[in-house]
Amino acid sequence: MDNCEALLKLLLEAVQSAAPAEKHESNEIPVGISNRHVHLSQADLDTLFGEGYQMTKIKDLSQPGQYACKETVTICGPKGAIEKVRILGPVRSKTQVEVLTGDCIKMGTKAVAKLSGDLVGTPGITIIGPRGSVQTKEGLIVAQRHIHMTPQDAQHFGVHDGQIVCIQFEGPRGGVYSNVAIRANDASALECHIDTEEGNAMSINSTSKITIIK
Fold first, then answer.
1. Which residues pair with 113 in a beta bridge?
2. What sign does the dihedral 44-49-51-52 (CA atoms) show?
3. Which of 99, 110, 126, 175 has its CB 3.0 to 4.6 Å from that of 103, i.e. a possible disulfide?
4. Residue 9 pLDDT more than 90?
């Protein structure tokens, strides 16, 4: 009897090891909706708020180490201004202002879709704080649609850093967005970033999920 039980156990183990592992990972990606915001260099922060000023964190964001600050500024173009634009931390090496396409019309500025950090050839903007103002030489962008992920996520989805893909959203106003950049690195958390105008066009919100179409 003991030999039979041992043989049965070996057979069960062999069958289990031969069976394909069940996949629990989803092909759906969470969405983050971004409104206009500002990233400041330390030098510009000092000019706008005072020498040695430290920003006040009010909320952590989905990407590791990123957070929303209590402080806001006013951004100005030739034709108009937008008040209470949120600052995101931490400070960066260069100041960057991310706006919506509609904001450009209101301010009389022109900004093209760019990935964060790619500021070559971008226009400048006037930023006003409680202690001073800054006229940047560059840094005004409309954020290009992108997906943050780790290299492991990229392997799962069959994509690579820098690849341009399409994304699909289901629903009554669903559809497809093209020109979505993959940003894969170890400092990222899985999330697709679009702005409020893009989200409103398809009735996408922070609880929505998208899928990648290659």
1. 142
2. negative
3. 99
4. no
The CATH number given to 145-213 is: 2.40.40.20
As a whole number, mean pLDDT of residues 2-12 equals 52
pTM: 0.85
Which structure tokens are listed for 95?
A: 């100041």
Token pair recorded at residue 48: 């706008």
Q: Max CA-CA distance within the chain?
A: 91
Residue partners of 200: CB distance under 8 A and separation at least 6 = none
Pinpoint the residues of the chain covered by CATH 2.40.40.20.
Answer: 145-213
List for the chain the helix, strand, coil content (%; round to 5).
Answer: 20, 40, 40
Both structure tokens of 193: 């970033």
For 117, the 3-state DSSP assignment is coil
d(CA 42, CA 110): 26
Report d(CA 147, CA 106) in Å as an integer. Answer: 28
CA–CA gap between residue 26 and residue 108 (Å, rounded): 43
Residue 10 neighbours by CB under 8 Å, 6+ apart:
none
- Which residues, at least 6 apart from 105, have a Cβ–Cβ distance to it below 8 Å? none
